[in-house]
């Protein structure tokens, strides 16, 4: 049995930070279930035909999210005068892009519900759109802004961030945010579906419950964060 798994490939040696994205896959046989905890090596193979039009990558690629339900791939990139979000089909064809109100994307997450889909982006910019977590429609319409745009902070009422790095959204609408891509915060927040604090943990450090520039967050099938 072949299980296809999207992944990101970055090449930091490319001149002028022209990063790109590739799709890779690994193969798992029925008799040899892969466990990442056993130290076994995943066998990745490069799909050299993805994307079909790599010339659309004109900035620095920082994040990618796959909407497997609708066959879409969202890519966040940075740079002056470049579209901040690129949208591709799963086959690698460029579909469209959007740019409004996104300054410096760091994390991106696709949230599918029974009523529709949306794309959440963490913005680590320091300009008028930065220090925020934003929800967009698949076509780029701004739906929700968490944080105080352009103003860094640690407040929970009103909710503030300082360069939030990543986001994970539960099916219930509850949200996890790691806040602190080099800013004043080094914390993990869980928010309710109406964006109120459920719990918060993290200070700067290497001890239990501490973080040093937390960069990503996810939740597994067992509820482990």
Structure description:
- By secondary structure, the chain is an all-beta fold.
- It has a domain at about 60-210: TolB, C-terminal domain (Neuraminidase), CATH 2.120.10.
- It has no helices and 15 strands.
- The protein has strands spanning about 1-5, 25, 45, 60-65, 70-80, 85-90, 95-100, 105-115, 115-125, 130-135, 140-145, 165-170, 175-180, 185-190, 195-200.
- InterPro entries: 6-blade_b-propeller_TolB-like.
- It comes from Chloropsis cyanopogon.
- This is NHLC3 protein.
- Keywords: Glycoprotein, Signal.
Stated plainly, the CATH topology of the domain at 60-211 is called: Neuraminidase
What distance lies between the first and last C-alpha atoms, to the nearest angstrom?
29 Å
CATH class of the domain at 60-211: Mainly Beta
Outline the low-pLDDT stretches.
1-18, 25-34
**Helical coverage, percent range:** under 10%
Mean pLDDT, as a whole number? Answer: 86
List the strand order in the largest sheet. 4-5-6-7
Based on the coordinates given, report the CATH architecture of the domain at 60-211.
6 Propeller
CATH H-level name of the domain at 60-211... which superfamily?
A: TolB, C-terminal domain
**β-strand amount:** 35-45%
Biggest sheet architecture = 4 strands, antiparallel
Q: How do the helices and strands follow one another from N- to C-terminus? A: EEEEEEEEEEEEEEE
Return the structural class. mainly beta
Enumerate how many helices there are, as a single number.
0
Radius of gyration: 18 Å
Find the count of extended strands (DSSP E, 2+ residues).
15
What form results from the Cα inertia axes? globular
